[in-house]
Structure to design on (381 residues):
């Protein structure tokens, strides 16, 4: 006899479970800020910055209002301007290219590698040649660490060096991951990350950070974050923005940072269980030797028609899926007039039709994950 009740819905990212674990600690941290009343750049902001820098091994961390602002602050500090080409993967969230266009420079889209979803070094080389052909000045490369996996810095950094390009690492999804023994936050000129609530380390609103080892850059970033201030906020020495992280969000992040390593390990266990159970039925994500991922998303690749059927099969069983990203940036209305690397973006255009992401977070218990795996296996069999 069939049970006609709807199966309990599984959350795609279970912030509630984390909230129950942190219990009163976050409430108390927020209450302390409300009591001391220093809502803008209060003591928790400075403490968070020093703890974030210590966590990843960067010399400096600057907290800011979002991952997008983190990218924007570095572009402003570097004086990226019209006529400059900034190389971005097309298979990513729009913020990476958006900030480039907003400062008047040209985002030039390059392809990714199917195995990692990250920027292709060969694609970058093609992109640099394209920029020169178009009369643009190659200025900066923004590799994105997609879904929590660091980009191929061993290949990208030497290419950038050879062509005189600065590297801004977009680690919006990868803070906490490492690349051959070095934590994300220590590659290139600077690293930007996001603390959007759904990210591996997220606050209760928008937030972000920039990491750098460059003493001059951090001073400029601090000024830019408060309207380009000089000796005080009414002495404006450059054009800036208002890009600060709220003290309340810093207080939340300090509590979450205490359990972050533990959550990263739990995400890794969940990814390993998915991989073991699904590798015979789909292309499962692979982490190259010597790298770790924080699994911001767990993304399978399936034949295009099969992907949509899987989502439709899982939905009535209370199992959510998501597609990151249904359209690449160079296919979107706001970005399709920007140049793509000569030779096109064949891998990117294939991936947008193949990818589908399953629930992934640090609180995916064995029973829930077994239910997801069983339903996915049944649907794909």
């Amino acid at each position: 006899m069939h049970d006609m009740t709807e199966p309990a819905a599984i959350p795609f990212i279970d912030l509630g479970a984390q909230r129950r674990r942190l219990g009163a600690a976050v409430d108390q941290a927020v209450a302390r800020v409300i009591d001391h009343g220093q809502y803008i750049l209060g003591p928790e902001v400075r403490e968070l910055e020093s703890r974030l820098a210590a966590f990843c091994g960067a010399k400096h961390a600057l907290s800011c209002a979002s991952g997008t602002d983190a990218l924007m602050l570095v572009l402003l500090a570097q004086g990226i301007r019209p006529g400059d080409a900034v190389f971005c993967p097309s298979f990513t969230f729009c913020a990476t290219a958006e900030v480039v266009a907003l400062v008047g420079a040209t985002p030039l889209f390059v392809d990714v590698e199917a195995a990692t979803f990250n920027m292709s070094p060969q694609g970058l080389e093609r992109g640099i040649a394209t920029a020169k052909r178009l009369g643009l000045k190659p200025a900066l490369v923004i590799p994105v660490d997609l879904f929590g996996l660091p980009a191929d810095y061993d290949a990208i950094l030497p290419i950038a060096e050879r062509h005189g390009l600065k590297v801004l690492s977009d680690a919006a999804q990868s803070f906490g991951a490492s690349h051959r023994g070095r934590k994300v936050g220590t590659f290139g000129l600077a690293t930007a990350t996001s603390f959007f609530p759904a990210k591996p380390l997220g606050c209760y609103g928008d937030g972000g950070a920039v990491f750098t080892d460059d003493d001059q850059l951090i001073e400029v970033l601090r000024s830019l974050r408060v309207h380009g201030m000089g000796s005080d906020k009414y002495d404006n020495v450059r054009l800036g923005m208002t890009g600060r992280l709220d003290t309340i969000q810093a207080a939340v992040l300090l509590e979450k940072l205490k359990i972050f390593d533990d959550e990263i390990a739990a995400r890794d266990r969940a990814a390993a269980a998915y991989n073991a159970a699904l590798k015979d039925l789909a292309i499962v994500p692979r982490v190259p030797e010597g790298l770790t991922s924080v699994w911001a998303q767990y993304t399978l690749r399936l034949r295009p028609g099969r992907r949509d059927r899987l989502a439709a099969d899982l939905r009535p069983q209370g199992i959510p899926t998501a597609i990151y990203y249904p359209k690449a940036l160079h296919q979107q209305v706001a970005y399709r007039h920007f140049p793509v690397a000569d030779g096109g973006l064949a891998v990117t255009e294939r991936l947008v039709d193949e990818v589908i992401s399953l629930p992934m977070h640090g609180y995916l218990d064995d029973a829930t994950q077994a239910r997801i795996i069983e339903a996915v296996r049944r649907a794909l069999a």
The longest strand covers residues 84-89.
